[in-house]
Design goal:
With about 290 residues, the chain is α/β, with parallel strands linked by helices. It is built from 9 helices and 10 strands. It has a single domain, classed as TIM Barrel. The chain has an 8-stranded parallel barrel with strand order 1-2-3-4-7-8-9-10, surrounded by 5 helices. The protein has a two-stranded antiparallel sheet with strand order 5-6. It is globular, with a radius of gyration of 18 Å.
């Protein structure tokens, strides 16, 4: 099983090139970053992390562009995988995003993992052209377009949200047919959203769950496998990368439990915000979990 790291604010102070290079040297498998293009100065949408933090964290509006941060990380490393956890796909035009993803995957020689989300802030999404009430329908169209851009000589699309004649979109990704597309989910009221699992089975490649209890992962994996079987896709490989919350999954016992579940990866949230602090934190994590 792989162990990755997640940097909540991969800015100049936590330079992705320096952090990623040190992660690779220590033996971590991957480096992941989040996304918010903008955040309105005021908004009415309730922050979903309320209750976990005393107030809405300042990093929500301070994140650099994830694709640029990951290109910096990729350029400083040779084997470390890179990923978005998660990029708000509806807030970008899919033709432009398809080219960015393919370029990053090509330059990194196939090291990119594409975690996408629909966002939680209505005001942010609507400023950037998202039909918030039907945002996953919009993202489904976007993913279809991107998958065609990554594999077909020409792409033409006529849908509810996007409509354009045949175009050529290059380069193509290094990974064939495309970098894996992951969808996130958080268990609500003790139950997993079956809609998320259906999307993953239908057009996704992987799952990025956030959980409070390791047993919840086993339940979700079983439910998703049942859906795949019912859909006639029993042979489909679904990647599972557990996203650790702030301070989660930092003991060998917990990591071994994920190994037993045959999880593909666990990604740990780096709590430090500057290069020196992150180096020390990763040194300890490596000593505790990778030795």
């Amino acid at each position: 099983m792989k162990i990755g790291i997640f940097s909540i604010l991969p800015d100049v102070i936590a330079d992705p090139a320096v952090v990623a290079r040190h992660a690779e040297e220590l033996g971590f498998s991957s480096y992941w970053v989040p996304d918010h293009i903008i955040l309105p100065s005021t908004y009415d949408t309730e922050y979903p992390g309320k209750g976990l933090e005393d107030k809405e964290p300042d990093y929500l509006w301070q994140m650099p562009d994830p694709m640029i941060a990951l290109m910096r990380a990729a350029g400083a490393t040779s084997t470390l995988e890179i990923g978005t956890a998660v990029l708000l796909a509806g807030e970008r035009h899919p033709l432009h995003l398809a080219k960015e993803v393919a370029s990053l995957d090509s330059f990194s020689k196939g090291r990119f993992h594409f975690g996408i989300g629909a966002g939680w802030c209505r005001e942010e999404a609507e400023i950037l052209g998202v039909d918030f009430d039907h945002r996953w329908g919009q993202i489904k169209e976007a993913v279809k377009i991107m998958q065609s851009c990554w594999t077909d000589p020409e792409t033409e699309f006529h849908g509810k949200y996007y409509d354009f004649p045949a175009v050529r979109c290059y380069p193509k990704p290094h990974q064939k047919p495309n970098p894996p597309v992951y969808l996130p989910s958080i268990i609500v009221g003790g139950e997993w959203s079956q809609r998320v699992f259906k999307r993953i089975v239908e057009w996704g490649d992987g799952w990025l769950p956030v959980v409070a209890d390791i047993d919840q992962i086993a339940i979700g994996m079983r439910q998703m496998r049942d859906l795949a079987n019912e859909s006639g896709r029993s042979d489909k490989k679904i990647l599972v990368n557990v996203l650790g919350g702030n301070g989660q999954w930092r003991t060998r016992k917990e990591i071994d439990s994920f190994v037993d579940l045959e999880v593909d990866q666990v990604t740990l949230w780096l709590q430090s915000r500057d290069v020196d602090g992150i180096r020390k934190e990763m040194d300890k994590l490596a000593a505790d979990l990778l030795a």
